[in-house]
Amino acid sequence: MEKKAVILSSGGLDSTTAMAIAKSEGFELFSLSFYYGQRHSYELNAAKKVAEVFGVTKHLVINLDLDKIGGSALTDNIEVPKSRTLISMTGEIPVTYVPARNTIFLSHALAWAEVIRSFDIFIGVNAIDFSGYSDCRPEYIAAFEQMANLATKAGVEGKKRLKIRTPLISMTKSQIIKTGINLGVDYSLTHSCYDPDQNGRACGLCDSCFLRKKGFKEAGLKDPAEYAVMP
Description:
about 230 residues, 5-stranded parallel beta sheet
């Protein structure tokens, strides 16, 4: 029987690498993206390109009105932090955290997995080079997986256990990039910036840009992203 996997795809570096890993493991790919009122909705263009290149069986884009809830610099009238140090990123949870985002995304992925009879959901969360988000931690993923197997028909009937796969969770950004390169990922397709300009160029100063540039530098590779500012 064909193995099917739902991949949460933002069009970013991490989710694209997770997709490449799923493909290398022989999964049939179903990618899931969201327009949730994010200021960096340009990322959906990247997610579409990634889906085409990877030849996914189906790519869904679901609309959510998280901007009506707000509370994040990505969905509300709050300034995106710029030029922060790595130390400041590992302190308190930043304003770019979107309340309950991964829980909402994983819940939709879980619903789709049930429908297509998939028992594997891939998410590119990372607990090493990240911005301090609470829903990127291993204990959160373990708790969601436990809940998923209590909530689904297949889980309750004991047919097969659903797994939330996080292949990048203990990697540094440079390790993620090297893994992707070895799997043939074209990172020029990806978009990471929280606050791109009207032409889709990365700002070069937000936390996500900082971590991306740091990762490519430590990997000894050139970042193919186009930046509005390259300090």
